[in-house]
């Protein structure tokens, strides 16, 4: 039987949420939960650099776990954060022509896929069905730069502070891990009946 080890402390309210969701997941998959209570106050790392290293290692592994869950391959560039300014300007052009998803997904695949194709922005645009010469011209359009700046200012004015951030009405969701909450909020606002986590009876 598959098992999952669950380390928890009652002082953490998020562990309450995890308890319910993990139980439902175990029921759906036939897994056995190994309950591992621990006292959070007694957990200490003597050196701050060691804690930061552990967090960095966890974030890297967590990113790959989410990528596998989404059926994607993600490889971070060795040189750090890639230059994306032109890609953002191109996204304004793609969105105005109803090609946003194909373009944005293509840019992400080029930047973080198994093969680095970050220099082929024009190829990404063409694959998304955008006109090559017009796309290149749009990258120099001051209006595209104004829209990118306005979007950032609007996000900040609404309380946002990171990418990815999602709003449904005035309800804000930060990070891809909040997608179940996004799905739940969408279901609530759609008027349709969905059986969501926590509603299994």
Key features of this structure:
4 domains, two-stranded parallel sheet, 201 residues, 8 helices, single chain
Structure described in brief:
With 201 residues, the protein is mainly alpha-helical.
Shape: globular
Structural class: mainly alpha
Uncertain segments = none
Total E-strand runs: 4
Q: How are the strands of the biggest sheet laid out side by side?
A: 1-2
Rounded to an integer, what's the Rg over CA atoms? 21 Å
**Overall pLDDT level:** 86
| Helix and strand sequence | EHEHHHHHHEEH
Give me the number of helical elements: 8
| Largest sheet features | 2 strands, parallel
Instruction: Tell me what portion of residues adopts beta-strand conformation.
Output: 5-15%
Percentage of residues assigned to helices: 40-55%
CA-to-CA gap between the ends?
25 Å
Description:
With 201 residues, the protein is mainly α. The chain folds into four domains: 1-39, no CATH class; 48-72; 85-148; 161-201, no CATH class. It is 53% helix and 10% strand. It has eight helices and four strands. The chain has helices spanning 13-29, 48-69, 85-96, 100-112, 121-127, 132-138, 142-157, 179-190, and strands spanning 3-8, 32-37, 165-168, 171-174. The strands form two sheets. The protein has a two-stranded parallel sheet with strand order 1-2. It has a two-stranded antiparallel ribbon with strand order 3-4. β1 (3-8), α1 (13-29) and β2 (32-37) form a beta-alpha-beta unit. It is globular and about 60 Å long. 8% of the residues are buried.
């Amino acid at each position: 039987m598959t098992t999952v080890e669950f380390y928890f402390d009652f002082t953490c309210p998020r562990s309450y949420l995890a308890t319910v969701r993990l139980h439902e997941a175990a029921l759906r998959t036939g897994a056995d939960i190994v309950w591992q209570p621990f006292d959070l106050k007694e957990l200490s790392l003597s050196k701050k650099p060691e804690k930061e290293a552990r967090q960095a290692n966890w974030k890297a592994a967590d990113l790959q776990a989410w990528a596998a869950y989404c059926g994607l391959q993600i490889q971070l560039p060795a040189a750090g954060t890639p230059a994306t300014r032109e890609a953002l300007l191109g996204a304004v052009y793609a969105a105005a022509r109803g090609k946003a998803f194909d373009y944005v997904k293509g840019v992400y695949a080029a930047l973080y896929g198994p093969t680095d194709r970050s220099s082929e922005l024009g190829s990404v645009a063409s694959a998304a069905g955008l006109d090559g010469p017009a796309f290149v011209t749009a990258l120099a359009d001051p209006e595209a730069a104004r829209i990118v700046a306005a979007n950032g200012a609007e996000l900040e004015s609404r309380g946002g502070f990171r990418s990815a951030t999602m709003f449904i009405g005035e309800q804000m969701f930060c990070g891809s891990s909040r997608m179940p909450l996004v799905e739940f909020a969408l279901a609530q606002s759609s008027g349709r009946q969905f059986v969501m986590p926590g509603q299994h009876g």
